[in-house]
Protein: Glycosyltransferase RgtA/B/C/D-like domain-containing protein
Organism: Leptospira vanthielii
Amino acid sequence: MIQSKKAIGFFFSLAFLAFLSFYFSARGLLPFTDFALIEWQMKLAGQTIFYLPYLHQIQDPSFSFFPLPDLFFQLTNGKAHSTFPNFYPFLFSPLLKFFGTVSITVAQLILFFGAIYIFHQIKKDVVSTVLLLFGSSLPIYIFLIHETILIFFLEILVLFLFSRNRVTIAGILSALMIWIRPEMSMVMVLVPFCFSNHSRILRFGISILFVLSIFVLGNLYTTGSFFPLRMAKNSDFQFRLETIFYLTKIWIGQVPIFLLSCFFFLRSSVSKQISFPLILLLLVTVVTISLAPNTGGHNTPRYLYGFVPLYILILRKDSEMIPVLSYRWMFALTLISLYTIWNLNGQMKELKKISKFQANTLNEIRKLDDSMLLFNNSDFSFVALPLLQENKDLLLLRKDYDQQDLAELLQKENIKSFTFLELPPSPFTLPENLIIPNCPHKCSFRKTKTLSLPNTLLPITQTQYLRK
């Protein structure tokens, strides 16, 4: 047997050393995909701007060439609003504005360990605390500009408040999380089953529904949408086996607490001491995976992280606080901790590769003479989002774009030349001559030469068009 205080000291020291190493590895990481969008929202929030500005709003009121894919913005009263709520960007924008991205990492590190500490106060169970610390790949988001760590902190706060019979406040925070991350609704439904006293379910549910109704009315008034923008933009459900398979694979590979729960479930089934809350949690997990609109795009099961604390609470529901830890649990926790650190290290290496590609690509695009850049791939335009702060102008071609509308937009903005950046295989291209309608002089943009964009890890091509 090992004293619990010594055990928890060992595992927190291990976490501190591992995360310190990851912190130095993550320095200089550049945001990509929706990370870049959230960083842009933070910078705008620092200027008290809570929409996505578009320089060509007058010439292109339908935002046909806006540099983000349609999934990530919603037009409301002639302005583009991100489908990511401004709650996280607003809270963290002062840190980014005055102290840079390092301060965001430090703040998220504090939130993460604060959540672990609050969780420990629920039962003061060493096993549960260490499992939350190392039971999933969630800590990778400490080093990224994303709302995942904030949502994790709020979820742990809800669980703590519920355990202390502060269910009204817990319900208010739950409604806020559901509005920011709709998939958290599946998690909040199961919160009462993590505790023995079910008498508080009704008050908890009423407080959630009441606050959600306020959010819905406010959203209807401001955007005309009943659902949160993130949910409204993903309303077209399609059953995709490849998405289910991929999410299942990374959920099993990156969340060892899930496999541990499955082991205990099988063992309890053999001994005929079945945990019905655990069965319900497993079923809801399967349903969430099946309903996921996409994979999340981060190579992590981020739609499912909310279930991690629930698995731990249900798994340790009947355990009592003891001053010692068995060697069997010490071995299991050490194995899980080392596996998670190894997994996080692999993810950090992958992030550094992506960041290197991002840095090289941005540096080469900065060297282009043209300020007007036209993209044919939304993933590629995400890479270039930081250039909006550097006097570069970005436009994105869509599948059904109108060549005449594009030519008129360029003419009205008095563009003399632009560079078309392609990432093969090209879904759609520009013609050799882009004709400007109703034009008295220099009535087309003509393709000149096509070159590869050097020093990038992808076969990106650059083609300059001159007005002649």
Summary: The chain has a mean pLDDT of 89. The two ends are 83 Å apart (CA to CA). The first strand starts at residue 2 and ends at 3. Residues 5 and 323 are 8 Å apart (CA to CA).
